[in-house]
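stuck on this:

***
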Amino acid sequence: MKQLEVPFMQLRGGSSKGLYFLRSDLPLDEATRNDILVDAVGRGARQIDGLGGGDPLTSKVAIVGPASRDDADVDFLFAQIVVGEDLVDTTPNCGNILAGVGPYAIEAGLIQGSDESTRVTVHMVNSGKLCELQLCTPGGAMEYEGDATIDGVPGTGAPIICNYLDVAGSICGSLLPTGSVSDEVDGVTMTCIDNGMPVVVLRAADFGLSGRESPEQLNADEVLKKRLESIRLQIGPKMNLGDVADKAIPKMCLVSPAERGGLISTRTFIPHKCHSAVGVLGAVSAATACILPGSVAFDLVDVPAGDVKQISVEHPSGEFSISLDVDDSSAIPRIRKAGVLRTARLLSRGVLYVPNSKKRGKP
């Protein structure tokens, strides 16, 4: 049988890379759509028969279409293909892949670029929340070259400003999904938080770690990974996430005192492999934990003063800067807006081929 032909683009968004599809080019049936997405990225741990790279950061998909609500310009559904398990998880958001949604929307003709700069309001379908992207569009065309840098990505690019609007409780329903600033599982104290991404924040020292370990060292520590997974499976239901055994959330974030001038140092598991950097919304949630009195991170930091707090989150590849617009009038601060700087680049566009068969078993 002839293979299925699916138009696509591949973009680097922030420190991730993904396949971008028009919603209208994919089947409406979710199961059929997911089969195609897994085939597109590639099955098995190596993903040798697809365009993925055998890594969670390159096994991502964006499905973009006209907005389904009046206060947005486009809809964006994020899908994480779970490497080695051939599963599609549409529960979380991805702030890195989101950075590529604006450029994709212009390249695909969904949005008409304005001269000099264009604002695109994205409805993040996974969470029902909004993010405003500010793009460089001289002459109405997407500009990719510029002087902006982000750690974890070589070279420079045109800045993309991402303003997340009131994303607390995006996935779990509340900023503190367990109803408490601190919880305990297996004798370990943690803070469970969802400010755009469900994250379990834990002190590295409670696992006998300095927090300076490399991702390679942490990924080789099977005892640590088993402890983290035990905690994740137990705390997931308490975060209103149900059984998380087959989900990419919550992320597990080990924090320690900053060493390079930032506010906090992080090592994030997404959820079973230590991130070589840090996810956008994962960093926002970790930064938010830092300003919450009573959290496991609060005593490790010197919280910046003012309503707009500039926070630098250190990670294995460098640092991630976040601007939190905070309302401190209540015991639990409310985050009105979280702003981050990203870059993106169009890598390829054309037609992707997937097997036209229901016999899509693992290799």
Q: What stands out?
A: The helical segments are 30-41, 95-99, 101-107, 215-219, 222-238, 280-290. Residues 222-238 form the longest helix (17 residues).
